[in-house]
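Appendix B, example 12.
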Amino acid sequence: MVLIIPFYLSLQMGILSVLGALFMGLLLGLLGAGGGILTVPILVYWVGVDGYTASAYSLFVVFVTAFVGAVSHIIRKTILIQALFKFGIPSLVSVFISRAFILPLIPNAIFSFGDWEFTKNHLILFLLSLVMIWSSVSMIRSQPATSDGKQVSSLRIIMAGLVVGLITGVLGAGGFVLIPTMVKLLNISIKQAIGTSLSIICINTGIGFFIYSRTAHDIDWHLLSWFTALAILGILLGGYLAKWVPDQKLKPIFGWFVLTVGIFIFVKELFLQ
């Protein structure tokens, strides 16, 4: 444990960071999604990375962990190529636009009121808190994703892919939205949605981080290496435990946890600066 904890973190923060990385991967292995949404707050509040950088680093961590998960689904043949293209292409376009054009255009200091200043980092964390609060509701309800069997227009599928890509590009996570959306719109099974979504997430986050890396010259590869390695260990453990632990029992618990973290981020970024 001592060797894993980075030298630039205190013992307490280092241990929390290690446990957070493991937990993030564990959730991804158990539920097929959800772990990535915790990466940004873990990096911000336990490692000390700013919000904008954390959203980019999250892209790398989710890219590698999603790749590990996608490989297992390729072996099990639970990835649908048609669904991959229907959702993947629009979401990829949206990720590219958000990372290459939208985020760079947002000024570092958006507005101020006296001594209180609202920055780009605060905006990213504020939006993340809203998405976490919104997504936690469906987790708490613990209703399995089901399809109504109706044919959905291609325009609606494209729009859904664009929204998912925007969330992924800006916040560094999006699988928790992608899986139920794919089941609902494409009339596929949850296992097929998980496998296909991991493939889409892998492509989107990989492209998103590549765009970020083209302009960033101070990427902390040491941080990304140990954090990602622990997340991979977590996803392998989660995949093993998923055989015995039903996700419908885990989702409400995780939902309340995400809701708590989302409210904490919301309050902190707006009122406790």
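The mean pLDDT is 78. Residues 98 and 104 are 9 Å apart (CA to CA).
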